[in-house]
Amino acid sequence: MKKTLKKILVSAMCLGVMGIMSNGVDAAAKIPADASTASSSVIQKENLKLVSEWDKVFPKSDKVDHKKITFVNRYGITLAADMYTPKNISGKLPALAVAGAFGAVKEQISGFYAQQMAERGFIAIAFDPSFTGESGGYPRFVASPDINTEDFQAAVDFLSTQNNVDADKIGIIGICGWGGLALNAAAIDTRIKATVATTMYDMSRVIANGYFDYDKDEATLKKERQQNRENLNKQRTEDYRAGKYSRAGGVVEDPSTFPQFVKDYFDYYKTERGYHKRSLNSNDGWNVTSALSFMNMPQLSYISEIQNPVLIIHGENAHSRYFSETAFENMTGVKRNGNDTVAGNKELLIIPSANHTDLYDGGGKNFIPFDKIADFFKTNLK
């Protein structure tokens, strides 16, 4: 069983387990031919090529307006996003930034969430993280606990400067691996007034410890981490020698011999239900060596200091449920009491019968509590 789980971790790093142009910063300058002549204080945008047609895995709503936008993060990477705005509503509105799942693109899960929230009265943007999808950054297909946390903060930068957004009413939604990154962002960015993390992963924990770390003693974990370090650093040498980055592989092509949760990933990422040509999970996955920084830089170190409201949502039958339960307990100091637990302005909500990917698109059974999420934000974005 341990060998099987190690195989899953290596072959499915993109699952979240590892798995028109902007009206943004008006002063942003185009990158000059000789970047060395640019002022170091000027925010510069990359010229991204964005798809104009609707290419989402979910149908377009007639209740919202949609457009492509771009914004720049603190590392100079230009991010691409879809902005969803409710029709027939004027004035300054509360706004949400949405990302995830880990290795997905905005045409999949995050876009679905954003559009649903726009139908409920929010301006919502779903963005591609740095180095992925339509967003900029090189090399491609790299993840970073620091840069990806910054991506959320950059989305808040953008929303805070929009004329139709109430800058005092901004929240974020993170899904799967981006659920953990959303909590990480909430711990550092006081402009984030409320946070929802759904079907979350703690990427640092799963990469450092493997799946279900509670099945292993500390000596075994240390031994396995050291072996992973040796393998990944050997891969760095091989990549540099070859002049290109080796990819980890997306969702396995034949999940028949794997645990049920891998089959669930396959059912979303590799079928018409959720496949997208730009999705890492649907195709060749992350660069193998992306795992190194997550292993060495734990997320969620300061979530106990998040003062603003947080709602964590997970499926009762999700293999990843323990990530949310541990995060909630570490954030509040309160042990989970039954399926649903409230501690101050923090809440853990367990969805009966739902698995991990059911909270990607509802699993055909409307598992995602969008009205609950909307009520949470309406109550707390004030």
Folded structure, characterized:
The protein has one domain (2-29, 59-380): Alpha/Beta hydrolase fold, catalytic domain (Rossmann fold), CATH 3.40.50.1820. Helices cover 32% and strands 17% of the residues. It has eleven helices and eleven strands.
Tell me which CATH architecture applies here: 3-Layer(aba) Sandwich
> What is the helical fraction, as a range of percent?
25-40%
The beta-strand count equals 11
Sequence of secondary-structure elements:
HEEEEEHEHEHEHHHHEHEEHH
| Beta-strand content | 15-25%
Number of helix segments?
Answer: 11
Shape descriptor:
globular
Q: State the end-to-end CA separation.
A: 49 Å
- Give the strand line-up of the largest sheet: 3-4-6-5-7-8-9-11-10
Q: What's a concise summary of this model?
A:
The protein is of the alpha/beta class and 382 residues long.
Summary tags:
nine-stranded mixed beta sheet; 382 residues; 11 strands; Rossmann fold
SSE topology sketch:
Elements: H1 2-11, E1 29-30, E2 44-45, E3 64-72, E4 78-86, E5 93-99, H2 109-119, E6 123-127, H3 145-160, E7 165-175, H4 177-188, E8 194-198, H5 203-209, H6 218-242, H7 260-269, H8 291-296, E9 310-315, H9 321-332, E10 341-343, E11 346-351, H10 358-361, H11 370-380
Parallel strand pairs: 1-2, 5-6, 5-7, 7-8, 8-9, 9-11
Antiparallel strand pairs: 3-4, 4-6, 10-11
